[in-house]
């Protein structure tokens, strides 16, 4: 099994392979990650690991969007993660490839990255300017009946989107092409649904594609039933744009 040591970027969300994630990087330890990545030539992958923080652990000020003014201001690479950072993080994460890293005049960064590969965290090192982890690549096994399950998930996902759009009198774009690869479908749906971080993390660490699709099918049916009964809905912006795939 392939292993590597890569910088860690803890967030309050899970990244999935093939999905694009924009980041605004404000905190010094994560600025240090970006400065290190900029040493890598542009024609080579600038890789780091996006890992979800477990419930009950405070998120560092670097995240999607603006920094959290109420976040822990303790300094150091492991600040806010306790004496053993590995215990504060989920063990299954996703390698990200930074397609663009733009430094602002104030030293903060705008980053656009894409999830590439699922990995398992084996150990975390906090001896440097930022956290690093030894990670092991996790293969994506298809599982039983992944193709048939993917078809069912796509149908349910389209109904889910229509319910979200219909509640706000919006229609889904006719050119919303959807993939046909079961693993890609499973990741796209996991990223596009309005779910909490623990549920997204559960989908990320599913043992195979078929298991993830089965879970998603149950979630989609349940969420669509709830949406049908609600007078107003959260996060309907999901119906305005397609999720970006690599």
TrEMBL record:
One of its GO terms (biological process) is proteolysis. Pfam families: LON_substr_bdg. One of its GO terms (molecular function) is peptidase activity. Residues 60-82 are annotated as: Disordered. Keywords: Hydrolase, Protease. Residues 3-224 form the Lon N-terminal domain. SMART domains: LON. This is ATP-dependent protease. It comes from Streptomyces bauhiniae. The lineage of its organism: Bacteria, Bacillati, Actinomycetota, Actinomycetes, Kitasatosporales.
């Amino acid at each position: 099994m392939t292993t590597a040591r890569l910088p860690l970027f803890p967030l309050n969300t899970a990244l999935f392979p093939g999905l694009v994630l924009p980041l605004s990087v404000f905190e010094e330890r994560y600025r240090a990650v970006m400065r290190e990545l900029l040493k890598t030539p542009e024609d080579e992958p600038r890789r780091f690991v996006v890992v979800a923080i477990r419930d009950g652990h405070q998120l560092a000020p670097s995240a999607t969007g603006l920094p959290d003014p109420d976040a822990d201001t303790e300094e150091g690479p492991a600040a806010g993660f306790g004496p053993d950072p590995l215990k504060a993080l989920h063990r299954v994460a996703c390698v990200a490839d930074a397609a663009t890293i733009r430094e602002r005049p104030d030293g903060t960064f705008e980053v656009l990255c894409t999830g590439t590969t699922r990995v398992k965290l084996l150990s975390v090192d906090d001896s440097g300017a930022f956290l690093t982890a030894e990670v092991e690549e996790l293969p994506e096994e298809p599982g039983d009946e992944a193709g048939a399950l993917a078809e069912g998930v796509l149908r349910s996902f389209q109904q889910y989107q229509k319910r979200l759009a219909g509640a706000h009198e919006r229609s889904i774009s006719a050119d919303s092409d959807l993939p046909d690869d079961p693993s890609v479908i499973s990741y796209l749906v996991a990223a596009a649904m309005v779910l909490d971080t623990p549920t997204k993390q559960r989908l990320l660490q599913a043992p195979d594609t078929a298991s993830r699709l089965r879970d998603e099918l149950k979630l989609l049916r349940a969420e669509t039933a709830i949406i049908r009964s609600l007078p107003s809905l959260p996060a309907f912006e999901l119906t305005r744009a397609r999720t970006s795939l690599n």
